[in-house]
Amino acid sequence: MERKPWQTWGKRLLTLAFLVLVPALLYMLARNLDWSEVRQSLLAYKPATLAVGLALALASYLVFASYDLLGRAYTGHHLPVRQVLPVAFVCYAFNLNFTTWVGGVALRYRLYSRLGLDTPTITRILTLGLLTNWVGYMLLAGTVFALRLVKLPDDWAVGVVGLQLIGFLLLAVALGYLLACGFAKRRTWRLRAHEITLPSLRLALCQVTLGASNWALMAALIHWLLPQELFFPSILGILLISCVAGVVAHIPAGLGVLEAVFLALLHGQLGQSSLVAALLGYRTLYYLIPLLLAVLVYLVLEKRAKAMRRRGKATLRKT
User: Fold this and answer.
1) Domain spans of the chain?
2) Handedness of CA 95, 98, 99, 103 (dihedral sign)
3) Are 53 and 225 in contact (CB under 8 A)?
4) How far apart are CA 163 and CA 144, in angstroms?
5) Any idea what the Cα angle at residue 81 is, between residues 77 and 86, rounded to 5°?
6) Backbone angles phi and psi of 153, in degrees to 5
7) Of the candidates 115, 109, 94, which has an alpha carbon nearest to the alpha carbon of residue 301?
8) How many CB atoms lie within 10 A of CB 127?
9) 132, 210 contact by CB (below 8 A)
10) How far is it, in rounded angstroms, from Cα 309 to Cα 116?
11) Per-residue CA distances from 32 to 21, 29, 36 (Å)
């Protein structure tokens, strides 16, 4: 089907805007980072500690990228795993550092569309990935909150009982989703121009497993970097609280929110300087280093896409 002129020019303008946006965001990040603090936080750890920490971070990203493999099974597209995982890794690294709109939406649509997927398929992959992340969150956070594994300060408005009730609510929503996927007779709904189809129970269980595992790995990295042994479920619960606070605050990478929540909830259990150093190490290993790797992978993907377009044009000319 021949494209209309406005579609061709629109695509070119969007491509130009995107190519300007990515370097601009990277420049702003590099400018706002205190590189001396990053260096000092890393030098405070032994190389073996950093190696294990980086392995935990990369394991989390592998689980994160596997969300798109579930999307592959859900939509039935036939892109090979070797193409899906690099795209997903790049998207999630940009997502965590520059918000969902940049990494989760814009970058995913650009990279997947250049691999031949249509917009409805990409939308379904994106939707399933978001659902995987938050269903896993709800089951894990619901369990931690319902069991009162997080000690809240007395002056917090929510309180221990309030947090426990939130936990029961999260568990109910997560279990309700699993029951719907397993036993609902009606599997498809239409919302305006969009069609929503429930995944199978098996796929939904994979969603919960991957989503919860990813959050647990993030908490395991922080727990590993802390200078003294603390109760892991408590660290996990604090991370889960801080991530919701970061989403509500609409701050890229939750800058400042994560630190504020951890400092408030671990006050008296750990020295402030030690905690800040651990969180700086966490940000470096989980956000900064994967982002640098993602930029390199992104450049390779762009180069491959350009080569594929040239080969496609050459084939059309021969025919």
Assistant:
1) 45-60+77-318
2) negative
3) yes
4) 10
5) 110
6) -60, 150
7) 115
8) 14
9) yes
10) 11
11) 17, 5, 12
| Number of C-beta neighbours around residue 227 at 10 A | 14
Mind listing the pLDDT tens digit of every residue in the chain (319 residues)? 444 455 455 555 555 555 555 565 555 555 655 556 656 666 778 889 999 999 999 999 999 999 999 999 999 999 999 999 999 999 999 988 877 777 778 889 889 988 889 988 999 999 999 999 999 999 999 999 999 988 877 666 677 788 899 999 999 999 999 999 999 888 887 766 667 789 999 999 999 999 999 999 999 999 999 887 788 999 999 999 887 765 554 444 444 677 778 877 887 777 777 787 888 889 889 998 999 999 899 989 888 877 766 665 555 555 5
Q: Which amino acid is at 121?
A: T
Residues listed for the chain? 319
Bridge partners (DSSP) of residue 152 are none
Torsion of the alpha carbons at 85, 91, 93 and 94, rounded to the nearest 10 = 160
